[in-house]
Amino acid sequence: MKGVIALIALFMMGCTGSAPAQYNYYRFNTSHAEAGDHGTEQPRIYLDQINIIGVADQQALVQYTGEHTVHIANYHYWAEHPKLLLTKETLRYLNETGFTPVLTVNASEFKQGEYRVLIEVSDLAGHYQQGAILRGSWHLYDTSAEGTTLLGVHPFNYSAPLDEDGFDALITAHQNNWQQLMKYLQSEIASVVR
Length: 194
Prior knowledge:
Blueprint: H1 2-15, E1 24-26, E2 44-47, E3 51-52, E4 60-64, E5 70-78, H2 82-96, E6 100-103, E7 115-127, E8 131-144, E9 147-160, H3 167-192
Parallel strand pairs: 1-5, 2-6, 2-7, 3-7, 4-7
Antiparallel strand pairs: 4-5, 7-8, 8-9
């Protein structure tokens, strides 16, 4: 009987020996600036939800740890799915730079002279040498009486080194990459808007 009690006590000690996992959730640091002055009537920019393809299409943070290897974090996650986070950031940025952005799913109809943007992200990951990487393409469409016309496909490829080790630095580098993409997107849209 003493052996059974000792065995149970030993088993219970083994079950309580490990600490529970510590989950961490990350989002971009958003400092909201005042919305741009829409002094002249700008056409609406319809934005499709950001499309993420491949291994980055998940809430866990992704890192390329070698030439052909990927690590998916066990305890480090985006606070919301990255396609939602990036869609919100894009809407916010376009609004702050003077455009009138609308999610395409909220549009009842497209009017002539309005534009539609589709962004497809193929890589959103940490990289063992390049820091944070962001790759993909964005498409700009014009709506006219004849229908929707593709004005251009614009590939993008950004990498930002990490200031220090850790997931906080990775998120900051991802945000820097997204801001670079937003500046490029805004300047290209501004050059074609009539």
